[in-house]
């Protein structure tokens, strides 16, 4: 894709993820686009490592006009994550990772599509990465309550964050390359306090 875009002289928009930053604790402060990639990312976390690898590979194409979009947890009609989380919220019992009052980097699919289209057209987007996260100020607990709307509220069962990480590691080892129902990235995504300001997207992409 990068070689084709370079040869055609057109912009490439690469869709990455906030998972490239790694599991950053809230105490480290806001994570911005210039933060180093791969902080505490386990080599067996194929999702995060593949996204990091893709971004790094794009940097070797001298002269490539590329913009990078880094969405958070994408929700919306038809989304697999939406369906899984809704089924969990309406199943009666929900494991709550850590305190449960952590903010999530929730992004609606329409915001992601809008960002992609704008990144393809706005001249100033060349060579930049943009975080697209935080459409709603929902906590982990608040998300499940919202998805269970109209049903009996779920019963929350506390799950310590280290235990969720350990379960993710076991799933990664046992998956043998197959799609994962759980991973260390998923544990960090749901269990840590997310702070991925989208100021650059607002200022450059509008």
Q: What's the number of helices?
A: 8
For the sheet with most strands, the description reads: 3 strands, parallel
Q: Quote the distance from N terminus to C terminus.
A: 26 Å
Q: Order of strands side by side in the largest beta sheet? A: 1-2-6
Whole-angstrom Rg = 18 Å
Helix and strand succession? HEHEEHEEHEHEHHH
> What is the average of the pLDDT values?
90
Shape verdict: globular
Q: What's the helical proportion of residues? A: 25-40%
- Secondary structure: number of strands: 7
Low-confidence parts: none
Structural class determined from secondary elements: alpha/beta
Estimated share of beta-strand residues: 5-15%
Structure commentary:
The protein is an alpha/beta fold and 206 residues long. The chain has eight helices and seven strands; from the N terminus they run αβαββαββαβαβααα. 39% of the residues lie in helices and 15% in strands. It has a three-stranded parallel beta sheet with strand order 1-2-6. The longest helix has 15 residues, at 161-175. The radius of gyration is 18 Å and the shape is globular. The model has no long low-confidence stretch (mean pLDDT 90).
């Amino acid at each position: 894709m990068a070689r084709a875009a370079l040869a055609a002289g057109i912009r490439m928009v690469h869709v990455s993820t906030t998972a490239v930053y790694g599991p950053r604790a809230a105490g480290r402060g806001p994570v911005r686009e210039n933060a180093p990639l791969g902080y505490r990312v386990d080599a067996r976390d194929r999702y995060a490592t593949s996204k990091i690898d893709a971004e790094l590979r794009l940097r070797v194409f001298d002269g490539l006009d590329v913009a990078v979009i880094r969405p958070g947890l994408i929700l919306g009609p038809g989304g697999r994550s939406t369906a899984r989380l809704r089924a969990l919220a309406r199943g009666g019992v929900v494991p709550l990772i850590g305190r449960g009052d952590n903010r999530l980097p929730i992004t609606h699919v329409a915001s992601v599509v809008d960002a992609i289209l704008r990144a393809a057209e706005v001249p100033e987007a060349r060579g930049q990465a943009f975080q697209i996260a935080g459409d709603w100020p929902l906590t982990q607990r608040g998300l499940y309550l919202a998805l269970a709307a109209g049903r009996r509220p779920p019963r929350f069962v506390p799950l310590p964050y280290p235990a969720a990480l350990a379960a993710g590691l076991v799933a990664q080892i046992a998956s043998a390359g197959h799609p994962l129902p759980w991973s260390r990235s998923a544990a960090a995504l749901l269990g840590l306090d997310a702070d991925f300001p989208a100021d650059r997207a607002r200022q450059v992409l509008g």
